[in-house]
Amino acid sequence: WLPKAHVEAPIAGSMVLAAVLLKLGGYGIIRMTPTNISTTLIYPMIAMATWGVIMTGLTCLRKTDLKALIAYSSVGHMGLVASATLIQTPWSTSGAVILMIAHGLTSSMLFCLANMLYERTNTRMLIAMRGMHKAMPLMTSYWLIASLTNLALPPTINLIGEIQIMTTLFNWSPLTIMMTAMGATITAIYSLQMFMTTQQGHLTKDSKETYPAQTRELLIMLLHTLPILLLTLNLELIY
């Protein structure tokens, strides 16, 4: 139900759902999962969570709807968080918290950027949004920041959270490295594909009259970018 809710919700609803409500769910898993939970219950749940990371990534590679692509990407990242919180070790919980904060900022920023393109093109189809670098050159910088943080480029906090989770899962079961590594690779592919499709190429006939970014839109992007940069430079701010 989550991708459907993301796609059909207004932009404010999508941003709040990605940045706040999903984090409440992660916090609930951390608080409610007993420390002495049986391994027979953990194995199938973590297997489903890590398999979901791969499945949502493959779905993103085939999506033509930009908002649906970002929604499935959000679900994939929360699969990593869910698998980390089930292990219930200090290192995994720390990684889950870091990734939740990083994902909240990044996913909210991507939804906002997608809505800015939708307001100008009246469509969510990727093929109809190409060439936006020529119409909105300043917003291309924010698209690049959002895409690179979404694929966990070093040294962003997304990478720190994912590395902690992948390390914890590997220590718990070495087989999980195949699932998480494949999921990280697919995430990098569709994030770069999303950026290249929307920003490169020639403007479509309907996009010739696209107006540049407004001050309020740039302010919203700045309020997303600053916390990402500050947390990347000083991770202790989380604690």
Automatic annotation (TrEMBL):
It comes from the Eukaryota. It is an enzyme of class 7 (translocase). Its main location: mitochondrion. It is found in: Mitochondrion membrane. One of its GO terms (molecular function) is ubiquinone binding. Keywords: Electron transport, Membrane, Mitochondrion, NAD, Respiratory chain, Translocase, Transmembrane, Transmembrane helix, Transport, Ubiquinone. Core subunit of the mitochondrial membrane respiratory chain NADH dehydrogenase (Complex I) that is believed to belong to the minimal assembly required for catalysis. Complex I functions in the transfer of electrons from NADH to the respiratory chain. The immediate electron acceptor for the enzyme is believed to be ubiquinone. Core subunit of the mitochondrial membrane respiratory chain NADH dehydrogenase (Complex I) which catalyzes electron transfer from NADH through the respiratory chain, using ubiquinone as an electron acceptor. Essential for the catalytic activity and assembly of complex I. This is NADH-ubiquinone oxidoreductase chain 4.
